Amino acid sequence: MHRGMAEATRLTRQGHLEEATAAIQRTLGGKFFPASSPGGPGDTDVPIDVTSRLVKQTPKGPAGRHTGGRGPTLLTRGVGKPSGTTVGRAASAGVPEGGRFVERSYTNSAGTRSYKLYIPSGYTGQAVPLIVMLHGCTQNPDDFATGTRMNEIAEERTFLVAYPAQAGNANMQKCWNWFQAVDQQRGRGEPSIIAGITKQIASEYDVAEGRVYVAGMSAGGAMAAILGATYPDLYAAVGVHSGLAPGAATDLSSAFTAMRQGGPVVARRDVPDGGYREVLPTIIFHGDGDTTVHPRNGDRLLAHLEGGKNGSSPRVTTRRGRVQGGYEYTRFTYQDAEGRDLVERWSVHGLGHAWSGGSYPGSYTDPRGPDASAEMVRFFGQNHKR
Questions:
Q1: Residue 59 CB: number of other CB atoms within 10 A?
Q2: How does the average pLDDT of the chain come out, rounded?
Q3: Spatial distance between the Cα atoms of 214 and 196, rounded to a whole number of angstroms
Q4: Number of other residues whose CB lies within 10 A of the CB of residue 169
Q5: N or C: which terminal CB in the chain sees fewer CB atoms within 10 Å?
Q6: Superfamily of domain 33-381, CATH level 4
Q7: Cα distance between the two ends of the chain
């Protein structure tokens, strides 16, 4: 184990990021994800959220259609029904009757990304909220829409949903590059592209003022946290599922450490400059059985958010419950002096690296947890910019 990680560190320092990633995967493959023990929460791929960027900057021009397909061997093998988690071939999104799921693209100086936008049948030009959903590694917009069922909720509640797609030439596993310093800053890298997509939609549709939100899973959750920190003027609240705090890593090696052990407690003043002074309301989901992104990262994100608050300490309330036929959970709610919810932290007991309450056709989902999509929509509805 130590020898393998030393080799990965050496390769990283020499700039051989693809070889370093392979070394990490070889080192961890047998120790943490043995083929002899399928069905448990640990039988997911070795760190799916850490993959080398193959080019320094995404070239301009069309990113190309992302149609999903097969991931690495461990991903395609799947966790299996006993664990309640679906991993494997990306699903195609079903579109609720009357709704439209259109494909678009956006380009700025940092590059081009395609995205899909769900327009519910109830949208007739009136002002509606917008939720930006960032997928995890190896996923695509169709797969993520299917697994989270966010389009179905949008059809019921009438709001727009955008699904930016990571390009394969920006990251081999289609992970958002949350661990690269250039992709943690306002006006640069992937945050600027996703913010640009958000603004493009707001310019073409009637998006309700102060009701734009961003959420994501895993690498997408980490990027959602970065978006909330770097663009607090654009988004009103953030949802982070199985993600990490901004500044948890600045390169491939530190990303691996943060995922496996939990990232450091990063003071907001120590992260890249640009927008970090305001703290947005945030809802956090994490399974305590997650062996891909350590559950401690949820606590680190909470500490990061706490560090940006001024004034008195928030009031904390705790609620415990159980999904019928599913997992137990604990929800911690942090309120300000006026009783407004600042942060919700959901710890789902027994959940692995999967979207809680998700739909089986989608990858990285577990329907036995509380419905993260519904809870995020509820939380977002309680928070808007005044």
A1: 12
A2: 80
A3: 13
A4: 16
A5: C
A6: Alpha/Beta hydrolase fold, catalytic domain (3.40.50.1820)
A7: 52
